[in-house]
Design a protein that fits this description.
Layout (H helix, E strand, L loop, with lengths): L2 E5 L10 H10 L4 E4 L8 H6 L6 E12 L2 E8 L6 H12 L1 H14 L6 H8 L6 H10 L30 H10 L3 E4 L13 H9 L4 E5 L5 H14 L2 E4 L19 H10 L6 E2 L8
Parallel strand pairs: 1-2, 2-3, 5-6, 6-7
Antiparallel strand pairs: 3-4, 3-8, 4-5
Helix pairs in contact: 5-6
Length: 288
């Protein structure tokens, strides 16, 4: 089985619609794909309606969190999307995205970048606006060569010149809320230092003690020594280890299924979940 547990669609900051994403996942030879848009489950219905036969969809979201001043992302799988407290927190994060993005645009303009809010809004479309959309605008303007080049201290990295904070969950609250909604939590790309400051291993240990299920190890932003370090930490803390592409369509160079999760780990994730269940494909018909 080929299992990719971290992807994004146009419901947040990917470039594939949810329907396109599941079709592309099947074409890439995946057996299981998780749709984990930022702080939203809005793309799930379309993905399920278009799900090709032979592909299983894991519903989820990537939750924006912050601990001791450091941002982190928490992958939440197979939770009840209608659980009211978790739904309310996701809504608070989403509602803060537009004011935050406008603040970053204003900071870029103050730095001499001729960016306009209308440009960012056009790129975001119906998705939840975020830094990748602003980064794409910087690429259009020729300020940087790629979206990844915008995530530096010079521009949009955590603490960068044009960075602005947003409402984020306390990760201990995120774990509690996801668990209460029957879901499973995995710390996304925990040592992706190229993205900015990362949380110390002591904090990961505290999160594990609070019920964190796993950490994402095989990821494009982790080199081999980092992956080995994380595997050792996972063994020490009793955490599951996952691998995934963090696919964003054409916005990043990584392809679907470039990094995958062991089938035994996937089985344990589904065993622990009670809020929702993986959806097997039956030959979807939803248009792109």
């Amino acid at each position: 089985m080929r299992i990719d547990l971290h992807t994004h669609s146009t419901a947040s900051d990917g470039t594939d619609t949810p329907a396109e994403l599941v079709r592309n996942a099947a074409a890439a030879g995946l057996d299981v794909v998780a749709l984990t848009d930022h702080d939203t489950v809005r793309g799930h219905a379309e993905a399920i309606a278009a799900l090709p036969e032979g592909l299983t969809l894991v519903t989820g979201a990537e939750l924006s969190c912050r601990i001791d001043g450091v941002s982190l992302h928490m992958l939440a799988y197979l939770f009840d999307p209608d659980e009211p407290e978790l739904a309310r927190e996701r809504e608070l994060v989403r509602d803060d995205r537009v004011p935050r993005a406008r603040t970053m645009v204003a900071k870029l303009r103050a730095l001499g970048v001729p960016i306009e809010w209308e440009q960012v809004a056009r790129i975001a479309g119906d998705g939840s606006v975020g830094r990748p959309h602003i980064a794409a605008a910087l690429v259009e303007l020729g300020v940087v060569g790629t979206v990844s080049d915008a995530f530096t201290p010079e521009w949009l990295a955590n603490g960068g010149r044009a960075y602005a904070e947003k409402h984020e969950l306390d990760p201990f609250d995120a774990i509690r809320l996801v668990k209460a909604a029957g879901g499973v939590t995995v710390f996304a790309h925990p040592l992706a230092v190229k993205r900015g400051e990362v949380v110390p291993e002591s904090s990961i240990a505290k999160l594990a003690a609070a019920g964190l299920d796993g950490i994402e190890v095989d990821h494009m932003d982790h080199d081999e020594p980092t992956r080995a370090r994380l595997r050792g930490l996972a063994r020490e803390l009793g955490l599951l280890t996952t691998g995934s592409s963090d696919y964003h369509g054409s916005r990043k160079s990584v392809g679907l299924g470039e990094y995958t999760t062991d089938p035994e780990i996937y089985g344990e994730i589904t065993r622990r979940a009670t809020g929702a269940f993986p959806v097997p494909g039956a030959g979807g018909t939803c248009p792109a």
